[in-house]
């Protein structure tokens, strides 16, 4: 009765409520004026693909949606495709958070068709959505072209590898307003991550936060991150924890950041393994690192 009486409701959230398929159907039936919603959050539920069709039906009616979150809701590519179709009904999205769902390549392909229709998108969280290296790069390229205001991008835990880093890097190079990039828990290695750093240097984006934790980085990748951070005015936070960076490289990183006056921006490295395996592409990565240093005049 409470929901049925809300004729002017614009924002609602269901967080950790055990929202199942039946509950999602009930929400759809009970919301009096879903077309007025501009903020709709669901998180840590058990909605699944069957429940997502009811949520998508709500989003379809909410053509002025600005802030949509459906995280940790156990949907797969079918659910992502339904949500993408629903979001295609509007063009006002500013924030989208689908983290911790199995969007997969099929869902990523659907989102790549839709997100460019939302030019005001400035926050995108696709962490742990199983994008994969190839489709992940294609999706980010579409976002870069169609969403010029993007400032915050979270794409950790998406199976990004060295082989697919070029596509991801090319997309990031087009994100001219990017301030926050979280790309940890992937398998970029020194070569792949240095590509990302090169892209961020060419974009001249006002980056202030970079998370590259747990990416199998060794010396070259760490130095690339430090030199990039040192080149960015107002840089605030660099996370390199969970990698395989030797002690001498950590000292170099600290020296670079201290010289730039941002030594406090380096996050603690309690889970770094300085005895880890060396980078197989150390020579090639070293050449790229030298090019990056030359470009940044560091």
General description of the model:
The chain has ten helices and nine strands. By secondary structure, the chain is of the alpha/beta class. Strands 1-2-3-4-5-6-7-8-9 form a nine-stranded parallel sheet, with helices on one face. Helix 3 (77-87) packs parallel to helix 4. The longest helix is centred in the middle third of the chain and has 15 residues, at 189-203. It is elongated and about 65 Å long.
Number of helices: 10
Strand order of the largest sheet: 1-2-3-4-5-6-7-8-9
Strand content: 5-15%
Residues in helix, %: 40-55%
- pLDDT < 50 stretches: none
Helix/sheet category: alpha/beta
Cα separation of the termini: 64 Å
Write the H/E string, N to C.
Answer: EHEHEHEHEHEHEHEHEHH
Number of strands: 9
Shape: elongated
Kindly state the mean pLDDT as a whole number?
94
Largest sheet: 9 strands, parallel
Radius of gyration, whole Å = 21 Å
């Amino acid at each position: 009765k409470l929901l049925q009486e809300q004729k002017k409701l614009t924002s609602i959230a269901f967080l950790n409520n055990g929202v199942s398929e039946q509950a999602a159907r009930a929400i759809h039936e009970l919301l009096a004026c879903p077309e007025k919603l501009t903020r709709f959050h669901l998180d840590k539920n058990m909605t699944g693909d069957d429940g997502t069709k009811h949520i998508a039906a709500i989003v379809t009616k909410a053509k002025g949606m600005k802030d949509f979150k459906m995280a940790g809701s156990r949907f797969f590519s079918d659910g992502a495709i339904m949500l993408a179709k629903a979001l295609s009904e509007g063009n006002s999205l500013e924030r989208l958070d689908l983290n911790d769902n199995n969007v997969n390549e099929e869902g990523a392909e659907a989102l790549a068709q839709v997100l460019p229709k939302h030019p005001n998108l400035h926050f995108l969280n696709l962490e742990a959505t199983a994008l994969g290296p190839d489709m992940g790069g294609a999706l980010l390229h579409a976002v870069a072209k169609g969403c010029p205001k993007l400032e915050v991008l979270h794409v950790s835990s998406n199976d990004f590898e060295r082989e697919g880093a070029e596509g991801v890097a090319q997309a990031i190079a087009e994100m001219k307003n990017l301030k926050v990039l979280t790309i940890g828990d992937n398998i970029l290695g020194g070569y792949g991550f240095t590509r990302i750093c090169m892209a961020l240097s060419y974009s001249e984006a006002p980056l202030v936060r970079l998370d590259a934790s747990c990416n199998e980085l060794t010396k070259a990748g760490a130095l690339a991150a430090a030199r990039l951070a040192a080149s960015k005015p107002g840089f605030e936070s660099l996370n390199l924890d969970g990698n395989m960076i030797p002690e001498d490289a950590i000292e170099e990183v600290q020296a670079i950041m201290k010289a730039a006056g941002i030594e406090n921006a380096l996050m603690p490295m309690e889970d770094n393994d300085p005895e880890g395996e060396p980078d197989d592409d150390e020579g090639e990565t070293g050449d790229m690192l030298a090019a990056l240093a030359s470009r940044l005049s560091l």
